[in-house]
Write a structure and sequence with these properties.
Blueprint (H helix, E strand, L loop, with lengths): L17 H9 L4 H11 L2 H8 L13 H8 L13 H5 L20 E4 L19 E2 L10 E4 L4 E5 L3 E6 L8 H4 E6 L2 E6 H6 L4 E6 L10 E5 L4 E7 L4 H4 L26 E2 L5 H51 L5 H5 L14
Parallel strand pairs: 2-11
Antiparallel strand pairs: 1-3, 3-4, 4-5, 5-10, 6-7, 7-8, 9-10
Length: about 350
């Protein structure tokens, strides 16, 4: 049966038992009236909507006044172990800091990383500080990594220009033109049997409000009747590039649908190899300029290091010659810097 919830109500009243009398007056009809009152007090309608079923309430009224009096050994009806004194209740309580959050967010309860064939794929080389590697060339791309929902209904991946969705619950052996109906709108995608669109009866394989906008005219889908995989290719709208064309990460979708869990940023590498042609040309130009600038800076740094090393050598030789001219003994600059004398005495003959 459905789980039962116990509710115990304690009433604190003065000697006249006014509060108890008012409650008893509201429940004078017996347990049925008390159940109705409790249904209203606990907002039964909202509880039923949350649970998705009716809530049955049964009550039992017990007078525990004598029991409490015996426990407290007092003549008045007060629950000193349940409530504070009146003076204490009137005093404002100091605010206490809330306990820190102890729940750990586990994104892998909502999705998992897999290859195109569904085999598990976990990144073994994840970077620190939630960093992710970016690829601008298809030749450098590693194996494709997909995000598969934990209900195994679909797996999807994305690049800078496209979202690829593979639906896994479409049965094999169907005829795409006769049995399937795929609806692609700027922010909505639905895949179902064709009789759903006609009579409302049938099976819906996927339906969702997309996280961001797409271009339906440039999107398409295909169905493999041998293994029952339906693949949808969605062309990203990428309105973010109109204002910030240099910030390519802005067009990366954090999730597929609005009600899906967010994908961790560093879970898999970013594929920017299909950026729009004007933006890709600008990126290549910026990369070339940055490379030339880095080479110039590198050559300048080498030149400065060479000049600095030459100055250091001249300074050491000058230090050794001055000491030899003053004392007549020849010492290395290491000994001179350590304050040593008389290691290698050389007599200078004049004549």
């Amino acid at each position: 049966g459905p789980p039962a919830v116990g509710l115990e109500i304690h009433l604190q009243a003065s000697t006249s038992l006014k509060l108890a009398q008012e409650f008893a007056k509201g429940t004078a009809g017996g347990p049925e009236s008390c159940a109705t009152l409790l249904y209203e007090l606990t907002d039964g309608n909202a509880v039923e909507q949350e649970l998705g079923r009716d809530v049955a309430i049964s009550t039992e009224l017990l007078d525990i006044t004598e029991t409490i009096r015996a426990q407290q050994k007092a003549d008045d009806f007060e629950f000193s172990y349940l409530v504070c004194e009146t003076a204490e209740r009137d005093e404002p309580k100091e605010s206490e800091p809330s306990r820190p959050k102890t729940e750990i967010e586990l994104p892998y309860k909502m999705y998992r990383l897999v290859h195109a064939d569904g085999s598990p794929c976990e990144r073994a080389d994840k970077h620190g500080f939630a960093m992710s590697r970016v690829y601008y060339s298809k030749t450098e791309l590693p194996d494709e990594v997909y995000v598969e929902l934990c209900d195994s209904s679909l797996r999807w991946r994305q690049s800078s220009d496209e979202v690829k969705i593979i639906l896994l619950r479409v049965p094999a052996g169907l005829r795409a033109s006769r049995d399937l109906h795929v609806q692609i709108l700027p922010d909505y995608v639905k895949c179902a049997t064709r009789n759903v669109a006609r009579s409302g009866e049938g099976e819906v394989y996927f339906e969702g409000q997309l996280c961001r906008g797409i271009i339906p005219e440039q999107s398409l889908w295909e169905y493999d009747s041998d293994n029952g995989l339906l693949t949808v290719y969605l062309k990203k709208m990428n309105l973010e590039l109109l204002s910030t064309s240099h910030q390519h990460a802005n067009m990366w979708w954090p999730r597929l649908c609005a009600d899906h869990a967010e994908i961790q940023w560093d879970d898999y590498e970013k594929d920017y190899s299909d950026l729009p042609e004007p933006i890709m040309r600008q990126h290549e130009k910026n990369e070339l300029q940055s490379k030339i600038l880095n080479n110039l800076e590198y050559k300048e740094r080498l030149k400065n290091e060479s000049l600095q090393e030459a100055d250091e050598v001249r300074r050491r030789m000058r230090q050794e010659r001055l000491h030899e001219m003053r004392t007549g003994e020849r010492l290395s600059w290491v000994d001179l810097s350590q304050g040593k004398t008389g290691r290698s005495k050389v007599t200078i003959r004049r004549g």
